[in-house]
């Protein structure tokens, strides 16, 4: 039960990220690259402080660190590159669809057993997500922006798979952020020098990026790395399909967005599919959430 609660808390943190990002980009007019860079730096500084306070220091390098840093950088900036030119709902469908493919493939490569109910639950959840987020009217997708969002999904999927080997979630996440942040700042400077970004930041949007980076990204990602070694890759993948539903519910509460019948029905299909997939019993023991409870 404790593990289930941790997963739910992590998904809520991810959904909070989505709400804060939407508020910063849409409500406050912040550009996606600047928002993402502030978010990355704020997360790095917060996690460094927590490591110094709770661990007395930080170990920057370790097995797989370069891979995790590359995956995190790919996610942050491919996602940022796609955000300004892609419908938000369609972007989420591409992102989460590619995350599913990446993490299921990673699980299969590692020899993970995936019962039929998990595949069915994942399919139902993805169908519900498409129904919930598909844009009204004609759909046109820029190849560049669509590909960028897909690369962002690959980046996040790989970053999550790397987290399954984590033995100290806080240290690993802090090191990943601290090593990625300078590279992110260099990319941001390149975008700025090219004139692709607005010269002035909105102060409210910047503070939303700080909050997103320090709390829902930094702490949320550390929590995710503490959960990942204890569950299977495919379970971690399907659980994330609940994030857009939670984020939309948060938008209704915090941003005054309208509750619709489509949200109720499609959101129910997503969450029902997640429950079917994640809580499916396994022969000779507990469900998939029990398999790795001795780890991490």
TrEMBL record:
The membrane topology of this protein is: Multi-pass membrane protein
Can you list the GO cellular component terms from the UniProt entry? membrane
Q: What is its main location?
A: membrane
Q: Domain EamA: where?
A: 4-133, 147-278
UniProt keyword annotations, A-Z:
Membrane, Transmembrane, Transmembrane helix
Superkingdom per UniProt: Bacteria
Where is the chain membrane-spanning?
A: 33-54, 66-82, 88-109, 116-134, 140-162, 169-191, 206-228, 235-255, 261-281
Cell compartment(s), UniProt = Membrane
Cleaved signal peptide residues: none
Q: PANTHER family per the record?
A: AMINO-ACID METABOLITE EFFLUX PUMP-RELATED, INNER MEMBRANE TRANSPORTER
Record's protein name: EamA domain-containing protein
In its UniProt entry, the species of origin is given as Roseovarius nubinhibens (strain ATCC BAA-591 / DSM 15170 / ISM)
In the record, what lineage is assigned to the organism producing the protein?
Answer: Bacteria, Pseudomonadati, Pseudomonadota, Alphaproteobacteria, Rhodobacterales
């Amino acid at each position: 039960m404790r593990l289930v609660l941790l997963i739910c808390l992590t998904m809520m943190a991810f959904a909070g990220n989505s709400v804060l990002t939407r508020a910063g980009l849409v409500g406050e007019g912040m550009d996606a690259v600047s928002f993402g860079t502030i978010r990355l730096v704020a997360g790095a500084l917060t996690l460094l402080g927590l490591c110094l306070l709770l661990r007395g220091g930080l170990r920057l390098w370790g097995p797989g660190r370069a891979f995790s840093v590359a995956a995190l950088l790919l996610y942050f900036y491919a996602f940022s590159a796609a955000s300004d030119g892609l419908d938000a709902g369609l972007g989420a469908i591409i992102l989460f669809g590619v995350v599913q493919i990446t993490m299921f493939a990673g699980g299969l490569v590692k020899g993970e057993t995936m019962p039929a109910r998990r595949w069915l639950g994942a399919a139902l959840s993805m169908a519900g997500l498409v129904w919930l987020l598909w844009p009204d009217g004609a759909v046109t997708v820029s190849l560049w922006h669509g590909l960028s969002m897909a690369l962002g999904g690959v980046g996040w999927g790989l970053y999550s798979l790397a987290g399954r080997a984590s033995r100290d979630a806080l240290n690993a996440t802090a090191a990943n952020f601290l090593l990625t942040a300078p590279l992110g700042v260099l990319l941001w400077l390149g975008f700025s020098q090219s004139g692709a970004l607005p010269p002035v930041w909105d102060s409210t949007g910047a503070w939303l990026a700080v909050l997103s980076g320090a709390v829902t990204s930094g702490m949320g990602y550390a929590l995710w790395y503490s959960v990942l070694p204890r569950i299977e890759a495919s379970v971690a993948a399907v659980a994330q399909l609940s994030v857009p539903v939670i984020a939309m519910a948060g938008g209704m509460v915090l941003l005054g967005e309208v509750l619709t019948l489509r949200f109720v029905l499609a959101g129910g299909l997503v969450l029902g599919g997640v429950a079917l997939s994640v809580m499916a019993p396994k022969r000779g023991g507990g469900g998939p959430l029990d398999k790795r409870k001795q780890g991490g």
